[in-house]
Amino acid sequence: MNEIRATRQTSGLTQIWGVPEGYDAFLLARRLSEHDGPLLHVARDDAEMARIGEQLAFIAPQAEILRFPAWDCLPYDRVSPNPAIVAERVATLTCLLEKPKRPRIVLTTVNGLIQRVAPRRAFEGQSLNIATGEALDQEFLIELLVANGYNRTDTVMEPGEFATRGGIFDIFPAGEAEPVRLDLFGDEVENIRGFDPATQRSTGRRDALVMRPVADFSLDADSISRFRTGWRDLFGQAAAEDPMYQHVSAGRRHAGMEHWLPLFHEHMETLIDYLPGVSISLAQQAEEAFTARLEMIADHFEARRQPTREGEVPYRALPSHLMYLDRKGWEAMLAGHPAVVFMPFAQPDGASGIDAGGRPGQMFARTATDGMRENVFPMLAARMNEWAQTGRRTYVTAWSRGSAERLGVLLREYHLPVQSYTTWHEAARMKAGTIGLLTLGLERGFVADDMAFVSEQDLLGERISRPPRRRKKADQFIAEASEIAEGDLVVHQDYGIGRYDGLETIGVGSAPHDCLRLIYDGNEKLFLPVENIELLSRFGSEQTGVALDKLGGVSWQSRKAKMKQRIRDMAGELIRTAAARALREAPALTPAEGLWDEFCARFPFVETEDQSRAIADVLDDMASGRPMDRLVCGDVGFGKTEVALRAAFVAAMSGGQVAVVVPTTLLARQHYRTFAARFSDLPIKVAQLSRMVTGKEATAVRKGLADGTVNIVIGTHALLAKTVKFADLGLLIVDEEQHFGVAHKEKLKALREDVHVLTLSATPLPRTLQLALTGVREMSLIATPPTDRLAVRTFIMPFDSVVIREAIQRERFRGGQVFCVVPRIEDLDRMAARLHEIVPDARMVQAHGRLSPTELERVMTEFSDGKYDILLSTNIVESGLDMPAVNTLIIHRADMFGLGQLYQLRGRVGRGKQRGYAYLTWPQTHVLSAAAQKRLEVMQTLDTLGAGFTLASHDLDLRGAGNLLGDEQSGHIREVGIELYQQMLEDAVADLRHEKGRRKAEDRDWTPNIILGLPVLIPDTYVPDLPVRLGLYRRISALANDAEIEAMQAELIDRFGTLPDEVRNLLDVVALKRMCRTAGVERLEAGPKGMVIQFRNNSFVNPAGLVTWIAQQKDGKVRLRPDHKLAIIREMTNAQRITQARKVLGALNTLAEAVPA
């Protein structure tokens, strides 16, 4: 170790041998504790940088670990790097200008290191310390934020954004885990609070905050002047016509402008310039990665110099030495500082350098005899004893807490001494002879010094898990994008389908009132008060060819009445089926002890919460003694197959047979491979029956099913043939049932009489629809993706030949394939010609809806087998298919797709170990509409995964619910819109089941009308952004009780400041509406001289009680008029109108509730 310590005093590159993966983090932690200055570690790529960062945080929690990631776009790209990445880079650079308070290490990659950065003086004095009680000029703060690259928005959700509302500033600073809310009183900071970007609610108070820049440059007058001069010097006066030049000249940001960063500064520096006295370490393949990067930069520079097609804006590329280190600069950097390169192998004889003594660990799973899992743990016990005799401590690492618990169970089953540790400080003091169980992301084990590490993979075989990341909730982003926009079709419960035409303030009872303006047939207008917005529902994403209803016409009411009856009939059928099933019996099946944990442990992912719940639901159903009939919904790759595998294990190990029925031979083959691999170590025979198998094999499979020697069979509708007989069918698994024809569905019904049935579906199912069917159809929803799936990097850009060529070539070079999707069949040939021009040697095949099922399946099978590089298709890329080789998606005319379609398409890529890339493009000459721009921006925001089912509930296309409930229902949905359909279905189910505490649908299908002569609205001075205001109106109208109203009031004050009277009135009206419903009051009108109450259908539920109550009002100013309206004569101020209304309605509520239900 003294030799390694000496490398920090001498400049130049030293090789340190014997540093296998995992041990590098321990060596870095040791170097940190022994070195006075900063360390810089250059990882091979982003994944390695993330791994070392996570391991260092566990091993050396006292260290300051700074990350400096590379941009996530290509050299000379037209798209900007991800703002969050830019913010993290700039936060690291500004941190490096401050004196360290603890040992400091910077982690970067080769790509991050060789890119030049803004000079130190650009960031000096740009950070701002803000503390409560201090003075802060609001105008100065806004100017500073804009100058430092912050983007002004209406709602802050991403790093680098800020919003201001009066004296409240919402800011998401660089380097912070969450945004902050500053509350200023005049120019004094009253308080600082963190807040959750998903809910916009405060999370806790803070005393101080450091505001760092989030951009590499500012658009101030000096920077713009430098840019203009540099641009003209490099590209000539004619280049002044370029949109980039014009945008920057006008002080506006432009997509991709960061690729001209050197023009904004007098000179550029490197990361090393920020690190005086640094000691450098490099991953083994850093040199090769540097060479490859230089070649890529040169290739892209040359590609950008090629003549552009007509209609494409020429790309004026900067000479590469201005933006990147060249080889001379790289070598000088390494020669000028102490530098080591970590080599994973033992030091060869005669090789220079130092041997750190680390060696790769043993892969027990691979060396277990006959592949039998039970040999692994005795082998571990024997090896641990050997290590203990030499004083070595044994540690077993797991990826997650859940995995660690499961491993602990397995180790104890084999009587191994196990102790769990949550910190390295405790674990490092453990005595030899015990196994220390740690939650630490380690791919492979190693042996070094006095420690031996064994990873989860070493014991259980290949896993591709990564530690769970903190996920952003998607609801807020999606809700904003799918809020009702002008021009959208909406459905009013009483008047039918209309078109939303904006928000308008009109006078109601001499006071201003916000109303939604709706247009109906014949251009007739209807004004809906905002507090009654719950009467509106979105029609759905498919709005073409839909006729508007006529105001006052009978068509809508008759259509709605017929629909109610049809939905009621369908709900009745569902309920009868569920009741009949509950009376039948089936064998109670439970997991086989011991083997179950090992079978589960071989799942190469960490189960998500949803997935664990689905598995528990299935196990409960199978053990209940009644036939299971459960539907598991979840997007492709979210782990439905694992639920099926566990159910199959329980059934097969209990002696029953399992049949897995799928709609296509391709899917059958996919499932067969998965099941065969997973059951390979068990005494279970898995077979396949489809067109893929020969006649001889099919005969053997049928015989095996009949005599019970085949335990699990996977097949297409061939399994439903009369010639197929089962010895003892215990579990039927149906995948993508909606793709089967009517005849096959009938055969499936016959098969499922007394066996357990598990149905899998990748159709997105909104939670509202799931709730509507609760208790009718047993359902489990898997809405979150596996924790290890890398987010798909999404690029939003005009179609650029160079970028698309690079995307396709990169995918091909790593052995992958590409999906290219266009909106219409007529676009296919045009796109094929374009792609052939860009990548003439790529093998391409087309698929679209006009191909016959057989032809389509042939195309998909050949593509899946790797015969083609690119599948060019319309939006029919089959939902159930899992193609892990496809990791790049190109969507042309992305503006023509709905949000749900875009999200589903993107879910088709990035399912394996490789990161997925999605390019959402449109023609360069095409100008996007505001709505399309918003949709695409949301797609970029949602690249953190897990948004699919939130999205489905907002943007469900008609096919989704139709698949679940039957084809006929799709037409029903089209008649009334998806949201109203869901509500009607929920009502029908609830009414038929006579649920207690629920009013009948007819009683709910109305809303009270309240006129107080008071202003009822959210002023635009309080909430300036219209979509946010509309969203608040929808949420406020749905508030169900006083607690929710108080919570909303607290949120509004938190987000926007003190409540104006108009907003208080709005919240009061919503509370009064609820009381009106309970009392059956259809209309309440109050003014300066009293109020008039009209009951629904001119009758009150407790007439005798009402008469008594009126008689008790001694002043004689309450009377029931001949027209059955209740009149209260009383002088009232504005404030008294609300308190009096509450008082009267409270009395009426008491009377109404006194009547037995």
UniProtKB/TrEMBL annotation:
The organism's lineage is: Bacteria, Pseudomonadati, Pseudomonadota, Alphaproteobacteria, Acetobacterales
Query: Which protein, by its recorded name, is this?
Result: Transcription-repair-coupling factor
Protein source organism: Gluconacetobacter entanii
Give the location in the cell: Cytoplasm
Which residues are in the Helicase C-terminal domain?
Answer: 803-957
**What EC class does the entry list?**
hydrolase
Protein function? Couples transcription and DNA repair by recognizing RNA polymerase (RNAP) stalled at DNA lesions. Mediates ATP-dependent release of RNAP and its truncated transcript from the DNA, and recruitment of nucleotide excision repair machinery to the damaged site.
Family membership: In the C-terminal section; belongs to the helicase family. RecG subfamily.
Keyword DNA repair assigned: yes
GO cellular-component term (any):
cytoplasm
Annotated GO MF terms: ATP binding; damaged DNA binding; DNA helicase activity; hydrolase activity
Q: Name one GO biological process term.
A: regulation of DNA-templated transcription
Indicate yes or no for the key word Membrane. Answer: no
Q: Give the highest taxon in the source lineage.
A: Bacteria
What keywords appear on the UniProt entry? ATP-binding, Cytoplasm, DNA damage, DNA repair, DNA-binding, Helicase, Hydrolase, Nucleotide-binding
Its Enzyme Commission number(s) read 3.6.4.-
Q: Where is the Helicase ATP-binding domain?
A: 621-782
